[in-house]
Specification:
Layout: H1 3-9, E1 15-18, H2 25-42, E2 51-56, H3 62-75, E3 79-85, H4 88-97, E4 102-106, E5 115-122, E6 125-126, H5 129-141, E7 151-153, H6 157-167, E8 175-179, H7 189-195, E9 199-203, H8 225-234, E10 238-242, E11 249-252, E12 258-259, H9 261-273, E13 280-284, H10 289-297, E14 301-305, H11 309-319, E15 323-325, E16 331-333, H12 343-357, H13 361-365, E17 372-373, E18 377-380, H14 387-401, E19 406-408, E20 413-416, E21 422-427, E22 433-440, H15 443-458
Parallel strand pairs: 2-3, 2-4, 3-7, 8-9, 8-10, 13-14, 13-15
Antiparallel strand pairs: 1-5, 4-5, 5-6, 10-11, 11-12, 15-16, 17-22, 18-22, 19-20, 20-21, 21-22
Helix pairs in contact: 2-3, 2-5, 9-10
Length: 469
């Protein structure tokens, strides 16, 4: 495998590339060898069987790539449990219920159909960047374990469905619209929510990994105009949207309006804090102060994490948090569930909350304080940009101009001015891109912080324009 291609497809918390240009069956066989070798080298006593669960989403390239990846695993002596077409959370679920030592999902999530990749969990923990780099080193060296593992198949859906039905009860019938964007969740979600007692209206739940109607990306509102329209016409209680592999959730209220993910996370957190106040709630930087204030008013303590599910789950473990939420629509329940991101389970919990409160979703959202915020702006950086140096210079300039500002370096630079206005300058984990956001409780404060960010980055040669201020 060419070193350049290898570097381009190995990211901070997944492996991802274009099929068949960057990834193909040979590449996936090699990654199977590499991960099988890793599993044998790092196996703990409880994972001595080196049995690895593998599932895939419904992309056209998935079948042949999965076959090759499994072949690579078996060639190292690892045994494989083939889960077939499932959501990524169902792969994660198998780690807790099927006696396997690792779970691998062949997916590219919300990306275009020509992409595919790998998400890995090992010993019930997400693979960290250093784990993916170790796979890369195994491939560069080209030495792999040799053996002959066994292959078996398992239908995880009945067990997974029953587990959720045992945990979640919806007290009265809700009418909900489900839009899975032709992704994998459409194979399972309608059945589950009918079993929860909901009346279901289905949109694009037919399995088609070419995503002919729209990309399954719940946070891109432009893709969900039909969902919004259907919610209003059907007089539904709300609508739910899933990404391609079922770990991102989006909720649209009874008026068809998108519920921003940090508000949704705060609603989830408040429902947990009603039972046990004082818990740590983990969020990523960039979460609205309105959402953080809502959590704190309900007795929670906000803890910031670096963006990305491996970092979120590790932070939750460190601070013993029962719940975490990301702006991306990943929600991590550890109060009654296993702590990995599962959009289907999160949607079921949302049904339970609305069923118990007997309140319109829009009314819940209106309880959040008003803030003024920009949309996220993503700025491409020149190829040779020293990103770490750029962040350091921005931080130093903020301190020089506003010595009384609060600085949080958990993930990029999050600075809060004395008037409560804040700005975020964050480096992407997977691309040569800056992610920018700003927020204030007053319109004038938003303009102040937005102009400051333009000035700070302009001084470093990074020019951009806000979409809205």
């Amino acid at each position: 495998m060419h070193p350049t291609v290898l570097s381009e497809i190995v990211h901070a918390y997944d492996i991802r590339g274009v099929y068949p240009v960057e990834i193909n069956e040979e590449v996936f066989f090699t990654f199977g060898q590499a991960f099988g070798t890793y599993a044998i080298c790092h196996g703990s006593p409880e994972s001595a069987n080196n049995n690895i669960a593998v599932g895939r989403d419904n992309r056209p390239s998935g079948e042949s790539l999965m076959k090759s990846f499994i072949g690579g695993l078996i060639s190292t002596g690892c045994s494989v449990t083939d889960l077939g077409i499932v959501t990524t959370p169902m792969v994660n679920f198998s780690e807790y219920t099927s006696g396997v030592s690792a779970g691998v999902s062949i997916t590219a999530s919300h990306n275009k159909p020509e992409f595919n990749g790998l998400k890995i969990s090992f010993n019930k923990k997400p693979f960290l960047p250093k784990g993916y780099q170790e796979l890369k080193k195994f491939i560069e060296i080209g030495k792999f374990e040799k053996g002959k593992g066994k292959l078996k198949k398992e239908d995880i859906w009945p067990k997974y469905k029953e587990h959720i039905l045992q945990l979640v009860k919806v007290p009265h019938k809700l009418r909900i619209v489900i839009d899975s964007g032709n992704g994998t969740t459409g194979l399972f979600a309608p059945d589950l929510f009918k079993s929860l007692g909901c009346e279901i209206i289905e949109l694009y739940t037919e399995s088609d990994g070419t995503f002919p109607n729209h990309l399954p990306y719940p946070q891109v509102e432009a893709y969900y105009k039909k969902l919004s329209q259907t919610i209003r016409e059907a007089k539904a209680d709300f609508g739910i949207a899933f990404d391609g592999d079922g770990d991102r959730l989006g909720v649209y209220d009874e008026k068809g309006n998108f519920v921003q993910s940090d508000f949704l996370g705060a609603i989830f957190a408040a429902s947990i804090l009603e039972r046990k106040s004082g818990e740590n709630i983990v969020v990523n930087v960039g979460t609205s102060s309105a959402a953080s204030d809502y959590v704190e008013r309900h007795g929670g303590k906000i803890v910031y994490s670096k963006t990305g599910y491996p970092f979120m789950m590790n932070t939750m473990q460190k601070v013993r948090s029962p719940f975490g939420a990301e702006l991306s629509g990943h929600f991590y329940f550890k109060d009654e569930y296993y702590g990995f991101g599962d959009a289907t389970y999160a949607a079921a919990r949302f049904c339970q909350i609305i069923g118990e409160k007997k309140v319109a979703v829009s009314q819940l959202v209106h309880t959040f304080p008003k803030v003024y915020a920009t949309e996220e702006v993503r700025v491409n950086l020149p190829e040779r940009t020293d990103k770490e140096k750029l962040i350091e210079k921005v931080k130093e300039e903020i301190i020089r101009k506003y010595p009384e500002a609060k600085i949080n370096l958990t993930d990029g630079v999050l600075f809060t001015l004395p008037n409560g206005s804040w700005g975020l300058i964050r480096l992407s984990n997977t691309e040569n891109v800056l992610s920018l956001r700003a927020e204030s409780k007053k319109g004038a404060g938003l303009k102040q912080v937005a102009l400051l960010m333009e000035e700070l980055l302009g001084a470093q040669g990074v020019i951009f324009n806000w979409k809205q201020v």
